[in-house]
Amino acid sequence: MESGVSVYYCALSRVFAYKCAVGRQLMAAFEGPEGVFAAGRDALSDVLRGGSEYVDKLCDPALLEWAAGEVAWAHRYGIRLLGLGETDYPRRLAECEDAPLMLYCKGPADLNAPRAVAVVGTRKATWYGRETCRRLVESLAELDEKPLIVSGLALGIDGCAHEAALASDLPTVGVLPCGLDEIYPRQHREMARQILERGALVTDFPRGTAPVAFTFLRRNRIIAGMADATLLAESFLRGGGLITLSLAASYNRETFAVPGRTTDASFEGCNRAIARQEATLVADERTLPAAMGWAAPLTRARRPSLLRPDDPPMRREALKLLESRTALSADELAALMRVDAREANILLLKLELEGRVVADGSKFLLSL
User: Fold this and answer.
1) Average pLDDT of span 65-79
2) Which CATH code, of 3.40.50.700, 3.40.50.450, 3.30.1370.60, 3.40.50.300, is assigned to 116-292?
3) Is 106:201 a contact under the CB 8 Å cutoff?
4) pTM attached to this predicted model
């Protein structure tokens, strides 16, 4: 984007930050951002009937002065300014009525990658939620065409999704609830640095914007809008992940959710979304690619190593039972194998010491 055009986009984005659809209509009426500022007060008033406060802001010389300073700052720090309707602007997001008029983007990632998946969920992620998220994201790296992973850089599931993408050489984008002059949360500064090497950080907020409740909500629409599909990896009955899932559905995007045990509060949101048919149940690594019409990943490549040729029959039986279920307690395994609880505990302890199973509370799961 040329500097002059950037200034106009930046100014419009500030005025219509929370009325993006109005700003979009105005650009259409005047054939672009330059036309808006070339129009006089009367012409603007004719289009913005009942919007005198917007006319006053657009005609204030201080607005363009501020925008020029913002553009200079962005160029100084290698931040790209992507205007709605321009080539580099995320095409999926542009389809959304409430798409931002301009995005701040730092990093080399292609925001118009052929495939893109948003991964969201609770900040209070359990071990099972994090491991499932990691496994699902890593499996996407085995597709014939690797998707872009979009999330919100938050603690919990978001951070897990970014980490798994980085570990799997998947491009990943972190969408921030603040300006790019700040990294939020601070605990993820190193992660943000790694993302910038081959991914990107994105926001529609100007510098100096602090993360507060409503900026998180607005951030969620960008996450949902940038992706072909949104995956809810773990969620309580209330949370930003559920909001993002709902936004994705409103944009006619595919939605998926990881099921959890009925006793796990951290999966109540996922289970309810599945029960209400608001999201497709993710049965395994093949669910999302199959539903999207993408090539199936080779998800079972690592599993044969859990069964060894010299394993005695009881150990093989235990591993097969664990593989066919989400998790089992020692008592449940004992009942299925028809052995006493002590024998099942010893068997599970040996498998845990070998790194083939892991404990999650009173339950045991296969090591992923």
Assistant:
1) 97
2) 3.40.50.450
3) yes
4) 0.81
